[in-house]
Amino acid sequence: MEQSAGDTAMNDGPLAEARAAPRFTLLIRSAKLIAPQGQFLCVIRDVSATGISLRGFHPLPDGDPLLLELQTGDRLPIERVWSRGLDSGYRFATPVEVGDVISETGEYPKRPLRLDLDLPLDLQWSGERIEADLVNLSQHGARIECAQFLAIRQPLWLMSDRLPEIEAKVRWRDGNRYGLTFDTTFNLREFALLAARLQCPRLLVEQPQG
Questions:
Q1: What domains are there in the chain, each with its CATH number?
Q2: What is the pTM of this model?
Q3: Which segments constitute the PilZ domain (predicted)?
Q4: How far is it, in rounded angstroms, from Cα 107 to Cα 181?
């Protein structure tokens, strides 16, 4: 029988109450797990007012503190209760409004999940190659910092020995900060595995067999 949010071998106290809370199953609802090792992509399996179960594309990291970030940007403190393969169950630090989690309503509108990173890379175009810093990354684009002026809609390549070669265009500019859109986007699994490789490669070594 599959464990759900908050499941544990203990049968009394607050954990038993957590199991008794009504659970709601969600399909392909992506979220971001923020751990001491970095920021990682996951999918919400089910949720109740007191707990949540997540599935990763690799074993999810543990540690303290842990935060679950929704696509609205809302962050929920959580504590891991159990883990099995790619699935893990967590207890919320305080009960949540399940409807808000399911509908992803918050102070801000939904937006693609972004991973905060600090990675030096090169930008290349028309025979030129310059240094820049990657600030954050999503499936569809990135934010970088670069001392050299870049034109809006300028095509370029992101080059790093830690990233695949990515073709992009400049979408916006704010001082030395630039927003890029990718010509070819990552699917969720590709993005999740890239995040693990950049921040905590041992999670990929721990992939369950079978």
A1: 13-103 (2.40.10.220), 115-182 (2.40.10.220)
A2: 0.83
A3: 19-92, 114-192
A4: 25
Angle, vertex CA 190, rays to CA 202 and CA 198, nearest 5:
40
- Left if phi > 0, otherwise alpha if psi is -120 to 50, otherwise beta: which for 73? left
Supply the DSSP symbol for 193: H
Contact 72, 107 (CB under 8 A): yes
Element (H, E) at 99: helix 98-103
- Burial classification of residue 78, based on how many CB atoms lie within 10 Å of its CB (0-12 exposed, 13-18 middle, 19 or more buried): buried
Check: CB of residue 125 under 8 Å from CB of residue 93: no
Task: Give pLDDT tens digits for 194-210.
Answer: 999 999 999 998 666 54
Helix (H) or strand (E) holding 195: helix 188-199
Ranges assigned E (strand) in 62-114? 66-69, 75-84, 87-92
Closest listed residue to residue 24, CA positions, set 4, 1, 7: 4
Residue bearing tokens 């009504």: 22
Percentage, residues of the chain above pLDDT 90: 75
∠ CA 114-195-138, nearest 5°, is: 25
115 vs 36: CA distance, rounded Å: 14
Which of 83, 86, 70 has its CA nearest to residue 34?
70
Residue 23, both tokens = 């659970």
- CA dist 135 and 175 (Å) reads 14
